[in-house]
């Protein structure tokens, strides 16, 4: 699947945003405004201004709505969720070429809040996946103790773990050890 760089960046951002959610013994990665500011800086989210508690609450709501898109049972439900999210963000598509990137489309209105920025750009990136008939690429890690979100961009849609070097390798090693233990008997 060929994905333009701006769509790929937005997909990475939505996955990283979702993976800030508390899970098991993992604390919320967006527990305060400073954490949100760090997220915005790390993802080079432009033109968001000074962030406050209202921005944090709004971004946490957007994060939950993205989570609902990833767990939508079919494309029709995912499309409805994305349409609502993008419409409420007040999308205003604009061509831009900033920060050394070639021409690409921003979907958020100038001066939009960080939550609307994320809802619009990331929502449209998810829309690209749904339009392409590739919703099954929006996944959760199959490692029992993980569950992190990821977008499977492998050629044959076979990726099962958020990171094959950690979750995937850990489960393969555990399975190997179990087989050896059983064989030794």
UniProtKB/TrEMBL annotation:
Domain Zinc finger CGNR: 137-180
Annotated InterPro entries: ABATE (IPR010852), ABATE_dom_sf (IPR023286), Znf_CGNR (IPR021005)
Protein name as annotated: CGNR zinc finger domain-containing protein
Organism encoding this protein: Streptomyces roseicoloratus
């Amino acid at each position: 699947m060929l994905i333009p760089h701006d769509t790929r960046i937005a997909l990475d951002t939505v996955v990283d945003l979702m993976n800030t959610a508390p899970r098991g013994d993992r604390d919320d990665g967006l527990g305060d405004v400073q954490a949100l500011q760090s997220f915005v800086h790390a993802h080079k989210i432009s033109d968001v201004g000074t962030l406050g508690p209202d921005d944090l609450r709004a971004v946490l709501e957007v994060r939950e709505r993205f989570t609902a898109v990833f767990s939508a049972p079919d494309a029709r439900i995912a499309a409805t969720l994305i349409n609502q999210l993008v419409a409420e963000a007040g999308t205003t598509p604009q061509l831009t070429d900033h920060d050394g990137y070639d021409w690409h489309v921003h979907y958020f209105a100038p001066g939009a809040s960080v939550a609307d920025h994320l809802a619009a750009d990331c929502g449209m990136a998810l829309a690209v996946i749904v339009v392409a008939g590739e919703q099954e690429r929006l996944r959760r890690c199959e490692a029992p103790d993980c569950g992190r979100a990821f977008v499977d961009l492998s050629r044959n849609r076979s990726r099962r773990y958020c990171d094959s070097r950690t979750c995937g390798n850990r489960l393969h090693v555990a399975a190997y050890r179990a087989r050896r233990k059983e064989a030794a008997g």
